[in-house]
Amino acid sequence: MDRAKKPKFSSEDLTRWKKEINPAPIVSKRIKIQRVNDEWLGCCPDVFHKTALGKSDTHPSFTLYKLDDGTWAYKCFSCQACGNLFQFVQKFDGISFTEAVARVLEEAGIEGWQDGQEQEDVSMPASKPKKTVTFPMSQYAPAIEALEHAPDGQAWLRKRGIGMDVARKLKLGFVQSAAKIVPVHPWRDDGWVLFPTLSADGQTVTAVKYRSIVGKKEKRDNGELISGILRAPDTATTLYNLQAVKPGAEVWIVEGEPDVLALAQAGLVAVGLPMAGYKLSDEELEIVNNAPCRFLAGDGDAEGKKAMDKLAERLSGETHRIQWPNNRKDANDVLTHECGNDAAKFKVLVEDLKSRAAHKSGARTLTFTRGDQVKMRKVSWLWKGRLVADGLNSFSGEPGVGKSTVAADTIAAITRGRNFSDGAINELGPKDVLIICDEDGREDTIVPRLTLAGADMTHVWFQDVEIHQGQTLEQAGTRLDEDLPLIEEKLREHPGIVLIVPDPVTEYFGDANPNLDQEVGPIYSKMLQVSKRHHVAWLLISHFNKDRQATSTNRNSGAKVMVTKPRCNWLFAADPNSTDGRCLMLQGKCNLAKCRALAYYIETENVEINQDGELLVLESISHIRWDGETSDQADAVLLSMSDPKDRADTKVKAFLDDVLAEGPRRATECYDLGKQQGIFEDALKRHGRGISKAQVTSANGQNEWWWAKTKMELDDLRDRQREKNSVTDQKPSIDSVLAFLDGMIGQASMPVTILKSAAKARGLNWESVRTAHRRHGYESVATDQGKCWRKVPSTGPTESTLIAVEGEENVPF
Fold first, then answer.
1. For position 585, what pLDDT does the model report?
2. Which pLDDT belongs to residue 195?
């Protein structure tokens, strides 16, 4: 754009446009975004992300959202790029700020702005040091005294579980009016609690945050967003309560001032980030790192977790993460809603969380127990010999061999309290099962499959993760690396749950690499601890890897611990000695009991249910038909699958090579012959891909399927059948046929193609000629000229000798 002809717009217009212009259509022209509630999510563009981090954003870290004042803003919670709509277009399009404003207004369809006041080009100048103001404690002291006589301010604190002792300790204040910092505000004169940030000696106020006792924020009918949080102008933005951190004492790090107060109620020293994206200064980082131990206890939402992740990367020494229980947002939420503002109860809970966090982070204590003091007990079984009741179990196998369907059959037995498929007694009675699976397949596959298996669906639970404001789409799925404490909360609420089934388990490892023992191992260890604490079993479903030469302990995909940690491993495979679709459930690594393999078939059936007063038919739902125990061993079966001579497809190929060696056969005839040898129709269809198949019209006008080794043989069959069907006169006499053969062949050999053409020219029925040549002293031979007929040597049959052909009467023409 020509800078001599700059567009004209006022600063008031800019402020208004930042709030009124919908950024989604403009941003979506440049990157792909998706609406989630009142925000828009997408992958951060390379111009921001790759520039900052050196790599592209593969997870939706970019968010469009509204600030408290109603301004639309963007932020990448990974690379920390942020700004308003005009700045986004400026950076993405590589233009000046003024040009970006003009482009946004043009794309938004706003006109008439050119007549406004001309402005300077404010295209992101280099940042300048910001001047901040401070003031002595004596100037702030009247606000502290005012809180002592402000019942509304004290009531606001009590509602949040904060007593006056803590308020005095942290120098909280109160003003009735915030007119000095905000001349116009709907709650200006309704009362404000003040949170001061103090210098190290506590004698200077470096910042003051105002919180309205009316509310945190409110959206008016006209769309205006009212913020109940203000900051004194020109004051510093720093960690709140940093002056309270003492050498040699632990420190908690939270987000926001109320959380600092909440932890103070439990007697703990905490500092508060002024905002989730705040980056500690070098001085602040040094003070926090000098503490012997740190507990990161930020907000539980996505933004809060990312803030703590970023901070953890900069901290050194002993640092532990706190997971707030029951999806509570932060410390103040736990104090208020989890503990009912009971400070003593909150202190006990926080100490427990602290102890657990320290234990999880590796702060361990070794103890020794003498052998004679160990009390022995029997193995506790969920399914005797096959699934332990308080540990890890695994199902693994190739896709399509029924792992999940067998799991559904097992779940049905548990929820109904019925005995298991091998006759093992269910000693627990009806119990509950928790299934961790993708929501997509639940309604049309998983629940119908469980229903067909006979499960009591009132005892089946499914786990979902809700997306909260600010979270990305990836955070909607279960993460076993993070969510085990939340799962434990549900196990406490539902003690009837005896089995948890993640299917497949590798989908729920979160950020852990499923192929690395050092990343999967800790997850499995924590899952085992959950099993011991709640007497619950895990059934972990996974797939085989591609190494067909591997033994049973090495066939599982993923980390080695996925086989070594579970106490009972079951492998699933198609029976290599069966051609009728039978599958095997084979015992893998198990040091508790030896059980025979189980054979089964996967069958399908339509499920009819009455749902909301309407008949719903779900087609082809799979279920298991058990076929008893077998003596098959896992290693032998898996290794035989890698040997071509033992595979079903090899057996089918050998069978077809044999039965089609003499020429084409009807498909029905092949099915009958195969059945006699234990090779069934579905196996022939599945593995008979190398043969030629075609429909041939019979004499009665019906089409029949024929199989042959080559397409040429089928073409020949079609021609013969067509000629046979077209002949309406009587068959020629045997004398004329033999005379034809003798005249054409004599003592030599003659290609069949020539004989066929000659017979057709003489009006002879080719089928009669072909039959006669077999019965009256001629044979087929392969020569350089192709397939030929010749006379059988003198020791062979003569005209007066009939050759018996199976299925035909020995009568001359």
1. 93
2. 94
Q: How far is CA 15 from CA 73, 149, 590, in A?
A: 12, 39, 69
Q: What is the DSSP secondary structure assignment for residue 456, as one 8-state letter?
A: -
Residues 6+ apart with CB under 8 A from 427: none
Record the tokens describing residue 484, joined without a space. 């085990």
* Its pTM surpasses 0.70: no
Show the CA angle centred on residue 7, arms to residues 5 and 9, nearest 5°.
150
Give the residue among 441, 436, 433 at the shortest CA–CA distance from 457: 433
Q: 185 near 167, Cβ under 8 Å?
A: no
Please give the pLDDT value at position 488. Answer: 83
- CA 599-602-603 angle, 5° bins: 135
**Residue 436: which H helix or E strand, with range?**
strand 432-436
Bridge partners (DSSP) listed for residue 8: 118
Angle subtended at Cα 373 by Cα 369 and Cα 379, rounded to the nearest 5 degrees: 100
Contact indicator for 460, 415 with CB cutoff of 8 Å: yes
Query: What tokens appear for 804 in the block?
Result: 């018996």
For the record, the structure tokens of 76 come out as: 């990448």
3 state SS of 1: coil
What is the b/e burial string over 481-493, where b = at least 16 CB atoms within 10 angstroms of the residue's CB?
bbbbbbbbeebee
User: In sequence order, what are the residues at sequence separation of 6 or more whose Cβ sits closer than 8 angstroms to the Cβ of residue 793?
Assistant: none
Instruction: Please identify which residue in the block is written with the tokens 């290599």.
Output: 576
Sites in the chain below the pLDDT cut of 50: 1-6, 115-130, 362-363, 469, 471-473, 646, 728-730, 796-813
Query: What is residue 54's predicted lDDT score, i.e. its pLDDT?
Result: 72
- Give the up-direction half-sphere exposure of residue 494: CA atoms within 13 A in the CB hemisphere: 20
Contacts of 459 (CB under 8 A, 6+ apart): 414, 415, 430, 431, 432, 433, 496
Cβ neighbours for 313, distance < 8 A, ≥ 6 positions apart: none
Question: Residue 335 CA to chain centroid, in angstroms?
Answer: 34
For residues 84-98, b (16+ Cβ closer than 10 Å) or e, as one string?
bbbbbbbbbeebbbb
Longest dimension (CA), the chain: 137
- CB neighbour class for 392 (10 Å; exposed up to 12, middle 13-18, buried from 19): buried
Instruction: With H, G, I as helix, E, B as strand and everything else as coil, classify residue 538.
Output: strand
Residues in contact with 722: Cβ distance below 8 Å, sequence separation at least 6, in sequence order: 697
Distance CA 413, CA 547 (A): 34
Which burial class, exposed, middle or buried, applies to 322 when counting CB atoms under 10 A from its CB (0-12, 13-18, 19+)? buried
Residue 726: its pLDDT value, please? Answer: 64
Which residues, listed in sequence order, are joined to residue 705 by a DSSP beta bridge?
A: 695
- pLDDT, residue 331, reads 92
> What pLDDT sits at residue 285?
87
- Catalogue the long-range contacts made by 554-559 (C-beta closer than 8 Å, 24 or more residues apart): 555/396, 555/638, 556/394, 556/396, 557/396, 557/506, 557/514, 558/506, 558/514, 558/515, 558/520, 559/514, 559/515, 559/516, 559/517, 559/519, 559/520, 559/521
Token duo for residue 750: 């003659």
Which residue is listed with tokens 């002592």? 148
Strands 204-212 and 381-383: what pairing? unpaired
List, for residues 108-165, the tens digit of each pLDDT value.
887 655 544 433 333 333 333 445 678 899 999 999 999 999 999 999 999 999 999 9
pLDDT at 367: 66
Measured CA to CA in angstroms, residue 686 lies from 565, 580, 584, 652, 691 at distances of: 38, 10, 19, 9, 12
In this structure, the strands spanning 318-321 and 387-388 are: unpaired
